[in-house]
Amino acid sequence: MTAPSRRLAGIGTSLLLLVSLVAGVGAVPSYGDGATARAAAQKTAQTTAQKTVRKDKRIVVSWKGERKRRVYQKTANVPGIGTVGLVCRPNSTEVRIRPNSRTPETQMWMAKFEDKGSRDVVAVKNVRVYTYATAADNGRGGTGPRAHEGLNQKPRIEDFQSGNAYGVISQRPGRNRDGQGALATPATSFKLTWWWERFDHPGHQYCNMALTLHTDSARQFGLSWHGSTEGARQTSSTTAIPGIGDAIVTCEPGSNAYDQTVAFRPTGVNAARSFIDYEYIQGEGDVDDQVEHIDDLEYDPVTGLLGPIDLPRNGMMRLWVSVNGVKQAYVLSSYFVVNNDQNPAVNVCEIAAAPLR
């Protein structure tokens, strides 16, 4: 699969960079048919959390059946959002989120990798906590205060199981409100591993779960809009990433729209040597079928971009951006509905990317 090719719409890259510096916001995307004509509608001011948040945290749940006192659960803070917890009991194995409020739209996307029936499989999951399911919701269609993703494969938890996952936790206003463009709340990436055994043998049971969280709001990016009316105003978001350049997310509403992409405008003396590797993870099934990896997408000297790269409609990506010899990994979640012409208020675009360690 190759990323779609875009041409500059009558504006040189150097002029775009000059406009960006003068305006104090990210540059307008320089690709897509009619980009110049839509520039005013597409511009979104660069918005990261008002206070830069950098935090790393690791929690571990580990116990053996011989121990007199077992710790079955550990919880960690997710900056600006709430808490995330691990639970490992012989009758409950899960990772859960509990936002400080369920009024916003809180999402925990994760890609689970495990062995299932002697097959290497992956499953993309989206755990949500919210009050308003859609723009028309009266507040009765929401969830409870917390949600979880189980790590067992069967209702009766297996005697032995192991696996790993990675993902991103993000938050934006509820779907009864505008999504407000670029991410304003810190997004947190995570890596998770689990291993338990002898759960069918009381007194000899063992479990180990480890969760590593990484938050760096200065390097996150994304875009959210709710309803086509807002989508027409918030078609794109440009965020300056230290050491990388600009991250540009485009999500265009409309039944004839095909621009739901991510691109990077690298900076520095060696920007022309920049490249990006990326992969899509969607749905559930064999890893070979559900994970698509693309290597060495090179810098385009005409547009000055890496990409643009198509976003999954309902799935996840990992990206590795290499600029000036520095490689930054990202995990990205993407969900959009842009083609509901009968009820454009329910069209939605929710994209979040957090640096991954």
Question: pLDDT under 50 segments (min length 5)?
Answer: 1-49
Number of beta-strand segments: 21
Distance between the ends: 26 Å
Q: What oligomeric state do the depicted chains represent?
A: single chain
Tell me the β content. Answer: over 45%
- The topology string of helices and strands comes to HHEEEEEEEEEEEHEEEEEHEEEEE
Quickly count the helices: 4
Q: In what order do the strands lie side by side in the largest sheet?
A: 1-10-9-8-5-6-16
- The portion of residues assigned to helices is under 10%
Q: What is the total number of structural domains?
A: 2
Overall spatial form: globular
How would you classify the helix and strand content by structural class? mainly beta
Question: Biggest sheet, in brief?
Answer: 7 strands, antiparallel
What would the average pLDDT be, to the nearest integer?
87
Concise overview:
The protein is mostly beta strands. The chain contains four helices and 21 strands.
Can you put this structure into words, describing what you see?
With 357 residues, this protein is mainly β. The chain has 2 domains: 13-50 and 218-355, no CATH class; 54-178 and 187-216, no CATH class. Helix content is 7%, strand content 48%. The chain has 4 helices and 21 strands. It has helices spanning 13-23, 39-42, 228-233, 287-290; strands at 54-64, 73-78, 82-89, 92-99, 105-115, 120-129, 147-150, 161-172, 188-197, 206-216, 221-226, 236-241, 245-251, 260-266, 275-281, 284-286, 291-298, 306-310, 314-323, 326-337, 348-355. Strands 1-10-9-8-5-6-16 form a 7-stranded antiparallel sheet. It has a 6-stranded antiparallel sheet with strand order 11-21-20-19-15-17. Strands 2-3-4-7 form a 4-stranded antiparallel sheet, with no helix packed on it.
